[in-house]
Write a structure and sequence with these properties.
With about 110 residues, this protein is mainly beta. It has strands at about 1-5, 10, 15-25, 35-40, 45-50, 55-60, 65-70, 75-80, 90-100, 100-105, 110. The termini are far apart.
Amino acid sequence: VQVVESGGGLVQPGGSLRLSCAASGFPFSRYAMSWYRQATGKGRQLVAHITSTGGSTNYAESVKVRFTISRDNAKNAEYLQMHSLKPEDTALYYCYTITIRGYWGQGTQVTLPS
């Protein structure tokens, strides 16, 4: 099982980014997916979650309205569209899934100047 994030970068407050997660090694369409983030010196936080079919999503209160999680089961990919970014969104963003156990990617860094 492998999940690989991409799409992070340096962005100005108010800007947008789209993160991607490429998954392999498991039947992607059968499993829910999540995005987590971890800011320096803080614990890992659930950002968004999407069910296996994409029919249901939920978000951390701090990102509701601004972020959208989605998936393309034909491409074995998950996405996080982020708008109206704020300095407090600065973090390492991780893709996560649970099959027989949890799997994390290596993370992609999102940085906003404070």
